[in-house]
Design a protein that fits this description.
Blueprint lengths: L5 H8 L22 H4 L2 E5 L11 H11 L4 H15 L14 H13 L5 E5 L7 H18 L2 E5 L3 H7 L3 E5 L2 E6 L1 H4 L5 H6 L1
Parallel strand pairs: 1-2, 2-3
Antiparallel strand pairs: 4-5
Amino acid sequence: PNGAGKTTSLKVLSGLLHPTSGEVAVLGFTPWQRRREFLSQITLVMGQRQQLYWDLPAIDTFLVNKAVFGLNDQTYRRSLDLLSSLLELEDLLGKPVRQLSLGERMKVELAAGLLHRPRVLFLDEPTAGLDPIGAAAFDNLTRELKETLGLTVFLITHDLDTLHEICDRVAVLADKKVIAVDTVPNLMELDHPWIQEYF
């Protein structure tokens, strides 16, 4: 449910928030220490916020990210070519971001976050606002990126189709607590303990 602590948990895991208690390790790092070695191995894409410059072509944001992550020309070009091919970006990169549809912006946003080849991709409700066809396409792309790039994807969503397409394991949050962790098919069984307890 809304208010369960999903986005707050993601912000702690990605290092944006410092928890009031408890410990967390991601890739062996304490996220909120925000060490460069940690930040260079993750990326965060939030459905409601963007890193793209609205009036500039998407490729300009890519060049900014190239500089931020200190990518050499060869690494940048390899990443850009792979992502352009996987996400079909060739016709989108030269357009001002404001001219892109929501689905196109999400693809370009995802590519911008993956240029530095992170190991972990955090997604916060990435398909929010997308129509069903766009959401299904985004799910397929994310699954393909996960498999092709060897990414660990940490995803927050209310969309059961997205869970089925992308996730190997799911944690269900309610009342700011994890109330179940299991595979998607097991969690959907009506006799699963979390359903019996929560409903």
